[in-house]
Task: structure prediction
Amino acid sequence: MDVEILKSLLIDGSKGKIVLLVMDGLGGLPVEEGGKTELEEAITPNMDALAKKSTLGLHQGIRPGITPGSGPAHLSLFGYDPLEYQVGRGALSALGIDFDLHKDDVAARGNFCTVDEKGVITDRRAGRIGTDVGEKLCDLLNEKINIPGVEVFLRPVKEYRFLLVMRGEGLKANIQETDPQTVGEKTLTAKAMDPGSEKAAKIIQEFVKQAEKILVNEHPANMLMLRGFAQLPNWPTFPQRFGLKPAAIAMYPMYRGVAKLVGMNSLPAAHSYEEEIDMLEANWKDYDFFFVHIKKTDSYGEDGNFEKKVHEIEKVDALLPRILALDPAALIITGDHSTPCAMKYHSWHPVPVLLYSKLCRPDGIDHFGERACLRGGLGVRFPAYELMPLALAHAGRLEKFGA
Result:
């Protein structure tokens, strides 16, 4: 995507509003041969009715065969090629909870986890401890961790997730994650991936050593893992690229963080889907672009809970009339990546997408699902970062190119 050409075509004063509704981990797989995916199984009369008037397809978050993390997957949806714009999850977590992250800080996303007497991970999420428990553990570590020459900050994020920030001179973030991403393994050593990151890696090793002793008698969260070491990047903002005044509506800090990273105004964290739509309605006049994020579809995919993921999709479908009543010029319904219950993890499978506009060329397909999207006019495995130009065009925000 040539952003400079796109910017030259933006129409000043256009009032067409865009909504990007993201059901995290939407894409799925059948759990039995010949069965349906979670989206296909869900009873979604509103999405199906909209599909008849829309253009469908399947997008690829990064490249074919590559499984995306949530950060790069969302950046792609926001119109940033994730192979060109790379950032670790630590920076996103910091922005998501409004931590005052400095330019030279190194941030990491942390998980409290459970290990056995041999240090082998038995639960990567420590039984999904409550946020109140995570807060107490962060307070405990903040009180007892002592590493000369560096400031260490721990902040609770949500449930078992926390933020770690190191502040000191000469720190770089190219460090191997300590999270092996599976149970049945021990945590990894935070090794520097280049000479410039040696100092920070040694500090992380000392931090983990101290934390292990402090947490040893806690239950179920008796250990921690770190990933997504990162520092703040200097990127062109979403308003600069697309001429839009954007707002992000999300419950989870990480997604508010990735939105803030590209210059979106992150509205206060919602506590329910209904409250998210309340915010959309209340702020409709003040913004041109709305990113609305739904998290639980991904959580239930990772848990392998097919029925609950189906139910979450149905809950979103029931709220769709409220979004349509606002009369957006362009509405995109999709996911950031696939999280099939059959796999209990993110996957490389292309993600269903529905693009509705009064200016779209309808496919006439009467169902929103993976197999239905195979027949859609948007195509199969097109890059997710191409959605933004399509949204701008369908919202009447782009001039023609050339004479």
Notes: The chain has a mean pLDDT of 95.
